[in-house]
Amino acid sequence: MESERTRLAANLERIEERISRACAKAGRSRDSIRLIAVTKTHPVATVQSLIDIGVREIGENRVQEILAKAPHLKGDFTLHMVGHLQTNKAGPVLPHIGWLQSIDSERLIARIEHFYKGGPRLNALVEVNTSAEASKSGCTPDQCRSICERVVASDALEFRGLMTIGPLDGNEPSVRRSFTLLRRLGENIADLTPDIVLSMGMSGDFAWAIEEGSTMIRVGTALLGDRSI
To answer: I need a surface site. Which of 63, 172, 196, 219 has the fewest CB within 10 A?
Structure first.
């Protein structure tokens, strides 16, 4: 277990160096970027090791993994649901997460409201499909504002900003275009919340995302290594 923590700590240090370089290039403070460790397919012990070395925000893509892992994790951390959430799976997962980064329809919002029992509202990001790829979830850019306004009006959700997944082909111009579009959408809805969160950038492209205005990056492989399954 100690060797696992040592390996993760070394990976985290390298990521921090990359974040700092990207921030310096963009003329931004390191404090302007939040790091979400995406632990999809990795076991509870690995996630716990991340928490033990000081990682405070954990992201998961699948409801079934959150339900399997969350009851066994200890310490000061917040869980983010970063993958697509089907409406029929909303009820079980809501008690375990502090953030939902994949709001993409009014139907999903209504389903979350159905299960909301009072208490703190769930931090919500509206996912936008900025690359127009049919394989990706997310609302269209044209739908973005109306869905954001629906989140703002919800008693169950706290609107925090936007999320996107850039093209996965590694083509820098197309990836940057996707991130630039999200930033511009964020500027267009700045009246809806005082501090717009822009969740964009993963292991292979977070430096570009930071340069394009990201405030939250979601890093999996660069931190944890290849997926376990």
So the answer is: 172
SS3 of residue 120 by DSSP: coil
Rounded CA-CA distance 215/162 in Å is 10
Q: Delimit the domains of the chain by residue range.
A: 2-224
Look at the alpha carbons of 104, 70, 209, 158 in this order and tell me if their dihedral is positive or negative: positive
The H or E element spanning position 12 is helix 2-26
Report whether 198 contacts 186 (CB < 8 A): yes
Those residues with Cβ within 8 angstroms of residue 163's Cβ, 6 or more apart along the chain or in another chain:
82, 101, 102, 125, 126, 127, 128, 138, 182, 198, 199, 200
pLDDT in tens, 136-157: 999 999 999 999 999 999 999 9
Phi, then psi, of 167 in degrees rounded to 5: -55, 140
Tokens 């632990």 correspond to 39
- Topology of domain 2-224 in CATH is TIM Barrel (3.20.20)
Q: What is the dihedral of CA 20, 208, 98, 55, to 10 degrees?
A: -30
Whole-structure pTM over 0.90, yes or no?
Answer: yes
Q: List the beta strands (DSSP E) in the chain.
A: 34-38, 57-60, 78-81, 99-103, 122-127, 157-163, 197-199, 216-219
Rg (CA), the chain: 17
pLDDT in tens, 42-91: 999 999 999 999 999 999 999 999 999 999 999 999 999 999 999 999 99
